[in-house]
Design a protein that fits this description.
The structure is a single chain. The relative contact order is 0.12. The strands form three sheets. The chain has a six-stranded mixed β-sheet, sandwiched between helices. Strands 11-12-10-13 form a four-stranded antiparallel β-sheet, with helices on one face. Strands 2-1-4 form a three-stranded antiparallel β-sheet. It is globular, with a radius of gyration of 25 Å. Helix 4 packs parallel to helix 6 and helix 5 crosses helix 6. It is of the alpha/beta class and 326 residues long. It starts with a strand and ends in a 5-residue tail after the last helix. It contains eleven helices and 13 strands.
Length: 326
């Protein structure tokens, strides 16, 4: 049975229109006009317990609005939302203990205090006994590679250390459902890797359900087998990441390294040449023609090395966002 059920979910905002200048200001004051903007429009999906689902889309697509409706921070205009048997907008205590929302651009830790003090406050809010709170803090700190950083003022921590401490604070009550909005925003490569490893281990250990939004496609590809793609408030893909690659990229990337220099013009009828060097070339070859053309290449050329891969996922997603692919 799905732990998250969403059906025909929509959210509209009324935005006041104002003309520039003094006259526009007076008109705006006495006779205000509004425009209805659809942030989310009739989306629906189900998520099972323990799934890690990537939720992607361009800026302004409706990702954060959807997450906030799933958390109950925003009331939907219409539709049905059920999270772990609860209606999020009612914000019941049992529901709040079962979820957490982490936003990469927001913080809950007190700036001038060390994280350990904020963590103790969080433990008291959730009614966690001192001994159990200490155990959980040590457990999560070990998983996140946080040590003496917990005893330094938050303002003296690096962005990566602060983000990991924010994660620790958000997971101290051991939520079973995690809504993560850009959790690796602004982090360096090493910090991103540590956060990804932590989220994977947390999911494996506690069977937590995770919905993750990120503009770093490495977060999505390393953690999520299933993705939801949203654009202009509408959900237009829900399925495996691998299937998205096949559906929206009809070609595969083939890298060939030859034993000798060749005339690259001979390769044009095999596929589209992306890059060429003295002894190597990258081709885009249609998936349906791939076996036959690879066989012909091996028979007709002296090839030292051959590698076949899907085009970079960033490139595929970029095409989808820019509406180059229907």
């Amino acid at each position: 049975m799905p732990v998250i059920r969403v059906k025909d979910l929509s959210k509209e905002y009324l935005v006041a229109d104002k003309q520039p200048g003094l006259i526009g200001t007076f008109r705006h004051f006495f006779s205000r006009e509004y425009t209805s903007i659809k942030a989310v429009e009739s989306i629906g999906f189900n998520i099972d317990r323990g799934e890690i689902v990537g939720f992607i889309g361009p800026n302004g697509a409706g990702k954060t609005t959807t997450l906030k409706m799933l958390c109950g921070l925003i009331h939907p205009t219409s539709g049905v939302v059920n999270v772990s048997g609860n209606i999020p907008s009612l914000r019941k205590y049992k529901f709040l203990k079962d979820i957490t929302l982490v936003m990469g651009q927001k913080q809950q830790l007190i700036w001038d205090l060390p994280p350990i003090d904020s963590l103790k406050v969080n433990a008291a809010v959730y009614g966690i006994p001192d001994k159990e709170a200490s155990y959980r803090i040590q457990e999560l700190a070990l998983m996140l590679d946080l040590k003496e950083e917990l005893n330094r003022p938050v303002r003296k921590l690096s962005l990566g250390q602060r983000m990991k401490a924010e994660l620790l604070a958000s997971l101290l009550h051991r939520p079973s459902i995690l809504f993560l909005d850009e959790p690796t925003l602004g982090l360096d490569v090493n910090s991103q890797l540590r956060v990804r490893d932590f989220l994977y281990n947390y999911n494996q250990k506690y069977q937590a359900t995770i919905i993750l939004t990120s503009h770093y496609m490495a977060d999505i590809t390393s953690l999520c087998k299933r993705i939801l793609v949203i654009d202009k408030g509408q959900l237009f893909y829900d399925g495996p990441l691998a299937k998205l690659t096949q559906q929206f990229s009809p070609s595969r990337l083939v890298r060939l390294e030859f034993n000798e220099q060749i005339n690259f013009s001979l390769l044009k009828h095999y596929g589209k040449i992306i890059k060429q060097d003295n002894y190597s070339v990258k081709l885009l070859i249609n998936r349906n023609d791939l076996p036959q053309k690879i066989n012909n290449l091996l028979n007709n050329f002296s090839i030292r090395d051959l590698e076949i891969a899907d085009p970079p996922i960033e490139e595929i997603i970029s095409k989808i966002y820019s509406n180059k692919i229907e």
